[in-house]
Specification:
alpha+beta, 31% helix, globular, disordered N terminus
């Protein structure tokens, strides 16, 4: 092929720049806290001129510090301020080689670096004996008229200072007509009990310096607008500290600041890769049916009960995970042959419902609290063991009352599952009382927290860390509530806010990861994630995210959501991201006992059949059991 002179010159000009953009080697990373305990300077060196970015956060590196050295240097120093004294922070750094002001490659030092160990720094504390403490607020910042907002006041003593002194908190600047609830630990100790006041400038006493959840409930008459809630802390012999938590009261007609456009689609385009999706359901559904370690043919067959795949903890290799019972009902409905999969459903009920949840009376980790499959099963079979499972989970799901549910970090999935358990318990008219409150109270409590998480992600945008696929799990829980309990006007606006933000900021965000969502939010605009994994390696998780776009298409009629959803869906079905995807994730080479094929299979079909339903022209009748 003959090159034109212009193209040849362009190639020659580009070659030296590419050679200068080698991957920088990072050395000598160190974090040095300041004497005052509220900032840290992180320094490192690179083998070639490079830029600098720091991620940091409590327990996990999540917040990104501003990029420094964008012109490129080999000696890097970034100072992070506004830290809490005497606390442990995780951190990570990133450097991309810079050529004439433009970054062209990357390398990072991970907080999962070294020999699998975490990288931490601990901020300095106040001098021993100093009567001091710290206070700040974290959490969502939007509340809708007639609803509640939960956020957290972080209060704690500095190392070597105050002991068990009580700290009083005064809240002022509350929106008119609002009420405040908080946990009074003096009455019931660590369990606490919820107290409420409508008095402006009321005083709450913290009898130990620990984090406490504050709930602000706006009345239907509270005027929409912005408010600064002032938190003033003090006490006998203690210095006074103040913090401000700005909140916004949204109109009930525009929750999340979004007046939701309820319309219906006028055209339903064909769903891409639908046949491939159905073929995979049949193939991998049969492969992952039996939940044992039998080395024989993996087909639809009863379990080998003497050699079952373990359940619980970190063992996630069976398709019982991600609600396998729901998965096999989904596949049976999708392929219109439910009797074919009855053996698979029996297998999963035996090992998850009967031998795991019920035998533990529901006291299982919150991230394995699956309820919808058993709700469907009860509607279709009237099996009383399904009610037992739902009751047991409802009594033991994620339900702290001391403030630990506010932050998005690690709690998206758990809060979503708790909301679903309460939703199905409520639909079945169960009333399981814990901490003196029944199922409906906790259902609304969890609903407010899931919506608060969405607020932190897409509206207030103050989440230190969140995971894309868990946004899909929260959307599933919200839509389940909306369609089974009440059409809460906050939910459509929240789903739209989340879907718009995720598509704009987390999908195709990285040039070599097209067709995939970044796994976690602090990867930013470069491929800097946990273990440096490509987003394309998580393409199967697309099918935990795509259904919210189909639901928005169904609810708004806007083609935008059909187009965006189809892009996400197709990549998830075909595993065809630019990074190549990993087809073996749901194939024979990754099955038990050496792989997680069952988990990955159940993730694929956890609720993705809803995509097919919502993206298709509605039929005249539907079964209530398959909602």
């Amino acid at each position: 092929m003959k090159l034109t002179s212009a193209l040849l010159l362009l190639l020659i000009a580009a070659t030296p720049a590419l050679s200068r953009c080698g991957v920088p080697n990072i050395s000598n990373p160190v974090a040095v806290p300041d004497v005052g305990g509220q900032s840290v300077t992180i320094r490192w060196k690179t083998s070639v001129p490079a830029d600098a970015l720091v991620a940091y956060g409590l327990a996990e590196a999540g917040i990104l510090a501003p990029i420094a050295d964008v012109t490129g240097t080999t000696e890097h120093s970034v100072t992070v301020g506004g830290l809490l004294p005497g606390r442990r922070y995780a951190w990570a750094i990133r450097s991309r080689a810079v050529d004439r002001g433009s970054p062209c490659d990357y390398r990072f030092y991970s907080f999962y670096g070294g020999a699998g160990g975490n990288t931490y720094f601990v901020t300095r504390s106040a001098p021993a004996g100093s009567p001091d403490y710290y206070i700040r607020a974290v959490g969502p910042q939007h509340v809708t008229q007639g609803h509640a907002l939960y956020y957290e006041i972080e209060a704690g003593r500095l190392t070597g200072s105050i002991r068990a002194n009580a700290v009083t908190i005064v809240l002022s600047g509350l929106p008119p007509g609002s009420s405040v609830s908080w946990t009074d630990k003096q009455i019931l100790g660590s369990a606490g009990t919820v107290s409420t006041t409508t008095v402006e400038n009321d005083t709450f006493t913290f009898y130990d310096l620990r984090d406490t959840e504050i709930g602000i409930a706006a009345s239907s008459e509270t005027p929409p607008g912005s408010y600064d809630v002032k938190i003033t802390a003090g006490g006998p012999g203690l210095p006074t500290h103040m913090a401000t938590w700005p909140i916004t009261v949204d109109s009930v007609n525009a929750p999340f600041g979004i007046a939701f456009p309820h319309e219906k689609p006028t055209l339903y385009a064909p769903i891409p890769a639908l046949n491939r999706y159905k073929e995979a359901a049949a193939t991998y559904g049969a492969f992952n049916c039996a939940q044992d370690l039998n080395s024989g043919p993996r087909t639809i067959r009863p379990n080998n009960n003497s050699n079952l795949t373990p359940v619980g903890g970190a063992v996630q290799k069976g398709s019982w995970y991600y609600d396998g019972l729901r998965v096999y009902y989904n596949i049976g409905d999708l392929l219109s042959n439910n009797p074919t999969w009855e053996q698979c459903r029996t297998n999963i009920k035996q090992i998850y419902r009967d031998r795991y949840v019920i035998s533990n009376k529901g006291a299982v980790p919150a991230y394995v609290a699956f309820s919808e499959g058993y709700y469907i099963d009860y509607l279709r079979t009237s099996d009383p063991a399904d009610l037992t499972l739902i009751d047991d989970l409802d009594l033991h799901t994620f339900k702290p009352v001391d403030g630990s549910m506010v932050s998005v970090r690690y709690l998206q999935r758990e809060t979503a599952y708790a909301l679903k358990v309460d939703t199905f318990a409520s639909v079945l008219r169960r009333n399981n009382v814990r901490y003196g409150r029944g199922t409906n109270f906790w259902m609304n409590y969890h609903l407010d927290h899931v919506l608060g998480h969405v607020d932190q992600i897409c509206l207030s945008r103050n989440a230190e860390y969140w995971e894309s696929f868990m946004g899909g799990l929260e959307a599933d829980a919200l839509i389940t509530y909306y369609e089974n309990i009440s059409p809460d006007p906050r939910i459509p606006s929240a789903i739209k806010c989340l879907a718009d933000y995720m598509y704009a900021n987390a999908y195709n965000a990285i040039s070599d990861d097209r067709g995939a969502f970044q796994y976690d939010n602090f990867r930013g605009a470069t491929n800097v994630g946990i273990g440096n994994a490509h987003a394309s390696s998580t393409i199967p998780l697309n099918l935990l995210i795509a259904p919210m776009y189909a639901w928005l298409f169904k609810e708004t009629g806007e083609k935008q959501y059909q187009v965006e959803g189809d892009s996400i869906w197709k990549s998830g079905v075909l595993l065809d991201g630019a990074g190549g995807g990993l087809p073996s994730n749901i194939g024979e080479s990754n099955g038990p006992p050496s792989g997680n094929s069952g988990k990955l299979f159940s993730q694929q079909y956890y609720w993705s059949t809803k995509y097919v339903t919502w993206r298709s022209a509605p039929v005249t009748t539907t079964s209530s059991a398959s909602r």
